[in-house]
Amino acid sequence: MPLPGKARARREEMLVQLRELFLTEGFSSFNIGDLAERLRCSRTTLYAVAPSKEQIVVAVVRSFFKTAAERIEARVAASADPARRLAIYLEAVAAELQPASAMFFADVADFGPANDVYQENTQYAARRVQALVTEGVRAGALRPVHASFVGAAAAEVMGAIQRGTIQATTGLDAAEAYRQLADLVMTSLTDPKERTREGGR
């Protein structure tokens, strides 16, 4: 049964506040009492988000990725250039992950249901990369490559970023790692002559 308008608006407000807190400090160290104190609200208000702390965490993590995906797709839709659309997508993913702390990513990795949400979004991102590569190749804006392979390779890197392997190996946080992935993908798929012309403009 849908929530009444006022209750729905209050729930969305709580999700925003919880997202900001979790992105900055993670969530494993908080219990419901801690969250109520930090957000200056009642436990009842928190339980309107979800009926347990674990479900609140999943709701917040899902909300974070849903909101991020909407903003990313809006940026992609604003460009008609097939090559730029791929670059915009990868750059926008990096920008959306920028506010997330290492503690947030560590907590997500350690909590199965939240990690499942992250994995779902990583898989979706890989499919979007594949689709955008296909679009760019068909338009002649990108070199002819095996789009499924590029999507699969991107998914492997995204998974390594999520698991913390990339940061452990390179010292790059998730946002910067995605920026490097964007640079790698675009450099490999764009004709060097086109890059030279773009750089000279």
Automatic annotation (TrEMBL):
The keyword rRNA processing does not apply. Keywords: DNA-binding, Transcription, Transcription regulation. It comes from the Bacteria. GO terms for molecular function: DNA-binding transcription factor activity; transcription cis-regulatory region binding. It holds the Pfam family TetR_N. Residues 8-68 form the HTH tetR-type domain. The keyword Transcription applies. Residues 31-50 bind DNA. This is TetR family transcriptional regulator. It comes from Acrocarpospora pleiomorpha. The lineage of its organism: Bacteria, Bacillati, Actinomycetota, Actinomycetes, Streptosporangiales.
